[in-house]
TrEMBL record:
Lineage: Bacteria, Bacillati, Actinomycetota, Actinomycetes, Pseudonocardiales
Amino acids binding ATP: K536
Motif 'KMSKS' region, residue range(s) on this chain: 533-537
Domain Aminoacyl-tRNA synthetase class Ia: 25-434, 445-567
Name of the protein in its database record: Valine--tRNA ligase
Domain remarks: ValRS has two distinct active sites: one for aminoacylation and one for editing. The misactivated threonine is translocated from the active site to the editing site. The C-terminal coiled-coil domain is crucial for aminoacylation activity.
Entry EC number(s): 6.1.1.9
Organism encoding this protein: Pseudonocardia humida
GO molecular function: valine-tRNA ligase activity
Cited HAMAP family: Val_tRNA_synth_type1 (MF_02004)
Sequence ranges assigned to domain Methionyl/Valyl/Leucyl/Isoleucyl-tRNA synthetase anticodon-binding in this UniProt record: 613-751
Subunit structure: Monomer.
Record-stated family: Belongs to the class-I aminoacyl-tRNA synthetase family. ValS type 1 subfamily.
Designated gene of the protein: valS
Length: 880
RNA sequence: GGGCGCGUAGCUCAGCGGGAGAGCACUCGGCUUACACCCGAGCGGUCGCAGGUUCGAACCCUGCCGCGCCCA
């Protein structure tokens, strides 16, 4: 680094203005190479591959959440001395990109088919160059400590090589096949979708009962998709159903079409459901397809790629499916064949989760599939036998439910943007060959038209990004990767795929080394401040960039991390971001105070620390250990909460105030500067993974160090807990708080100094804190004999009672004092009653652990003493 | 129908066998020389309901009621 370091200085700007600093700071980190691992040496490797965002996407709050969680893990590991690699990149999002580019083409009055395949793809790369990947700059904005030198894209050269290699390997192993199967067809995309790209939604449709045949031979069937009757090739009934026994084996005329179809018996028909007779459309319904297979029925396709009726030889050919649904029903009604109509009829319909949310159509179609049986088995086993941990563990059943019941995966898409299936057909179509990345097809052979599902390439992400199939140094060093961080909602989308592909591609490394990652850490979804799911339709989405503009990146990250409990959803709202911003400001000002008073971590810690020093150093030690353990266990919310509480409620509210007293004492000033310096140094390092920018500015100013990014992680902060000192600080806090309470209730103005005399401090071990009590309560300690108190209060502590006499310059508010003491008395009485009840139970005394019983006895004693003291004080109050 | 989970302060959530907590909101008082994005004090909860286990249950078990998500 050639850059000059900022001088260690007491004149930090009065305010932290994130927008002016963040971008430059991030650029310096990148240029310093902090995010690029050494890739060798004796540092242990740590690697996370980014769940690749979509090339069309921009940063939404869910990304911000996930990236914050990953970055916290990575930054901590880097500070711990790991050779940390967070590998960035994007996937090519076949369908989403198609939707965008085709829309643009439509606006120009053309289409991809008019343009042709080559030109379309060229156009698409052009789109990517101009508009794709806006999320990458937003990741910089968010502070993601990714290694940009290793950025990858699922359609770059290396990924292509991996995809083709993988396809061929699977093909040669008999794990990829082509077959005509019932698939989920999207008429809008004119492509097949995989099972997981289909959402089942309850809709209000209609159930129409249709009479086939006439007179005694009539049979009634029901359907929600009336138009499919045009493709019926049979009616089936249960073999034991007496109502239809005489019809089994006979033929019946299919209305409107005029074809004759058989009535058949099939065990799978439920005679209780509807009329007990089922129309069979083998080419357009998964169940019917199975029936058709069992009975060797013809399977005419009656719907084209765009969802229009075709090939039925009826007037309905050319109509859209929904149009035909109405027209067919009306035509049947005209013939008197509609026996019943149930409307609305609630039933489940598969909808596309890609592009327009249209109903998908089951359609018989020739597609490529991955035979997942052995792959899914291995993916399940890796978790079952503990090689891969799912965190939190409660999510395991979800994972198993998926991998253990997986259907073969349809990987072909009738699209152009993506990896074209590497299979070529001979001119007469009788032969096919699958080629590897460096092989040439025979002259005159033509390549399969379809491209692969985007997940086929994303599934290879944990190793294709590291160079596979080449045996690169990165692959050797960073595979298996350490952790996969992703949302539980997309566990199925690609975790299972990465598991299957990783175990398969890396099988030669053996069971332990073939896994794609050691841990799957699942987070929840970001919800709005009311806990509602965010959606565009509900209008409750938030833009993390706007929040970053308004409150700074650190505040957004802090908020997200603070909401992140493992595997559960995270509600966030603007109020929470404000609170985080406020925390950052608090930290900023507190550090400024420390600097202005000469805080310096390089000073030696005092050999004879004060109670306050010992207490805060002990707490720092505890907090560091807690935060370290919590982050190790992905407990972000608790780790952040611990830091928030320590910083605000302990360090700022108490230690800093006590430090002000100590700094006025020459003999303790340097020790205090050392403790302040040490405490802020450690605290800033602990906070850095969560809020990197702010902590960098403060840490550099405080320590003069190069960068907190590469500062050591404080697992062991150094000072053991001094229980005696901590106890005295607790007592001190109680004394101070009780006096404040009295002042408030007596309406003594905050700013007014009050003459006072303190008694009993020495007996309770607080003799050394006389000055602190005075300073924190704005008391003038009266030494003169003519001091005349107007009020006294007694504060009971474990070691004795502190007596405080105050001259409030006037009569005290007896009613307020009576009320205050009354509340205290009620509380003490309740405490006494509870303790007596427990101690009066012989079984409790007998069976409960000794320390628990002892604790209750102590509480009883304190309560009893309180009651006596308070009662006495109440009696001494003037009658009003 | 199967699986996972949730019902704790006005809101959002921690706590998961021995004294009910946090953030935000609210009330009162304060521009006290780090900070009004702040300081001090305070109000606020039969921990969904009913049983059971236990010396002791918000916490463990059973049932019920209500809610959410995933899969079929």
């Amino acid at each position: 680094m050639t850059e000059t370091l900022p001088p260690r200085t007491a004149d930090l700007p009065a305010q932290w203005i994130p927008g002016e600093v963040e971008a430059g700071m991030y650029q310096r980190w990148v240029e310093a190479g902090y995010f690029t691992p050494e890739g060798k040496g004796d540092k242990p490797p740590f690697c996370i591959v980014i769940p690749p965002p979509n090339v069309t996407g921009s940063l939404h709050i869910g990304h911000a959440f996930e990236h914050t969680l990953i970055d916290v893990l990575v930054r901590r590991r880097r500070m711990q001395g790991y050779d940390a690699l967070w590998l960035p990149g994007m996937d090519h999002a076949s369908i989403a990109v198609h939707a965008l580019v085709e829309k643009a083409l439509a606006e120009e009055g053309t289409s991809r088919r008019e343009l042709g395949r080559e030109a379309f793809i060229e156009r698409t790369w052009q789109w990517k160059a101009e508009h794709g990947g806006s999320i990458l700059s937003q990741m910089r904005r968010l502070g993601d400590s990714v290694d940009w030198t290793r950025e990858r894209f699922t359609m770059d050269e290396g990924a292509n090589h991996a995809v083709l290699t993988m396809f061929k390997k699977l093909y040669d192993d008999g794990l990829i096949y082509r077959a005509e199967r019932m698939v989920n067809w999207s008429p809008a995309l004119r492509s097949v979708l995989s099972d997981i790209e289909v959402n089942h939604v309850e809709v209000e449709g209609e159930l129409v009962s249709i009479r086939y045949g006439d007179g005694d031979d009539a049979i009634v069937v029901a359907t929600t998709r009336v138009e499919t009757m045009l493709g019926d090739t049979a009616v089936v009934v249960h073999p034991d159903d007496e109502r239809y026994a005489h019809l089994i084996g006979t033929q019946i005329e299919l209305p409107l079409v005029g074809r004759t179809i058989p009535i058949l018996a099939d065990e799978h028909v439920d005679p209780e459901f509807g009329t007990g007779a089922v129309k069979v459309t083998p080419a357009h319904d998964p169940n019917d397809f199975e029936i058709g297979r069992r009975h060797g029925l013809p399977m005419p396709t009656i719907m084209d790629e765009s969802g229009r009726i075709t090939g039925t030889g009826t007037e309905f050919d050319g109509m859209d499916r929904f149009e035909a649904r109405v027209a067919v029903r009306e035509a049947l009604a005209a013939q008197g064949r509609i026996v019943a109509e149930k409307r609305p009829y609630l039933h489940s319909v598969g909808h596309s989760s890609r592009g327009p949310q249209e109903p998908i159509e089951p359609r018989l179609s020739l597609q490529w599939f991955v035979k997942v049986g052995p792959l899914a088995q291995a993916a399940g086993d890796a978790v079952r036998d503990g090689r891969v941990a799912v965190h939190p563990k409660e999510m395991e059943p979800r994972y198993f439910a998926w991998v253990d019941n997986m259907h073969d995966w349809c990987i072909s898409r009738q699209l152009w943007w993506g990896h074209r299936i590497p299979v070529w057909y001979s001119p007469d179509g009788s032969e096919q060959v699958c080629l590897g990345p460096d092989e040439q097809p025979p002259a005159g052979w033509t390549q399969d038209e379809d491209v692969l599902d985007t997940w086929f390439s994303s599934g290879q992400w944990p190793f294709s990004t590291l160079g596979w199939p080449e045996q690169t140094a990165d692959l050797d060093r960073f595979y298996p990767t350490s952790v996969l961080v992703t949302g539980y909602d997309i566990l199925f989308f690609w975790v299972a795929r990465m598991m299957m592909f990783g175990l398969y591609a890396m099988a030669d490394r053996g069971p332990e080394q073939s896994i794609p990652f050691h841990t799957i850490a699942l987070h929840g979804m970001v919800r709005d401040e009311r806990g509602k799911k965010m959606s565009k339709s509900a209008g409750n989405t938030v833009d993390p960039i706007q929040w970053m503009d308004a409150y700074g990146t650190d505040a957004v990250r802090f908020t997200l991390a603070r909401s992140a409990n493992p595997g559960t959803d995270a509600p966030v709202g603007e109020a929470a971001v404000q609170a985080s911003r406020n925390f950052g400001t608090k930290l900023w000002n507190a550090t400024r105070f420390a600097l202005a008073n000469g805080a310096d971590p390089a000073l030696p810690l005092p050999s004879e620390p004060t109670d306050a020093d010992a207490w805060i150093l002990g707490r720092l030690n505890e907090v560091a250990a807690d935060v370290d353990a919590l982050l190790e266990d992905f407990q972000y919310a608790k780790a952040v909460e611990a830091l928030y509480h320590f910083t605000w409620d302990e360090l700022c509210d108490w230690y800093v105030e006590l430090a002000k007293v100590q700094l006025r004492d020459e003999s303790r000033a340097d020790g205090t500067r050392a403790v302040l310096g040490h405490t802020f140094d450690v605290l800033l390092r602990l906070l850095h993974p969560v809020s990197p920018f702010l902590t960098e500015a403060l840490w550099q100013a405080l320590t003069g160090g190069e960068s907190v990014v590469v500062a050591p992680w404080p697992a062991e902060a150094g000072s053991p807990v001094d229980a005696a000192a901590a106890g005295r600080v607790t007592d001190l806090q109680k004394v101070v708080t009780e006096i404040r309470r009295f002042r408030t209730e007596q309406r003594v103005p905050d700013a007014r100094r009050v003459a006072a005399r303190l008694g009993g401090l020495d007996g309770t071990g607080l003799g050394g804190h006389r000055g602190a009590v005075a300073a924190l309560n704005r008391l003038d300690l009266a030494e003169s004999p003519d001091f005349t108190p107007t009020a006294t209060l007694e504060i009971a502590l474990p070691g004795g009672t502190v007596h405080v006499e105050l001259d409030t310059s006037g009569a005290i508010d007896v009613a307020a004092e009576r009320a205050r003491l009354g509340r205290d008395l009620t509380a003490a009485q309740k405490e006494l009653d509870q303790a007596d009840k427990k101690l009066g139970n012989p079984k409790f005394v007998e069976k409960a652990p000794a320390e628990v019983v002892e604790g209750i006895r102590a509480r009883r004693a304190t309560a009893a003493a309180d009651i006596e003291r308070i009662t006495s004080r109440l009696g001494a109050l003037p009658q009003s």
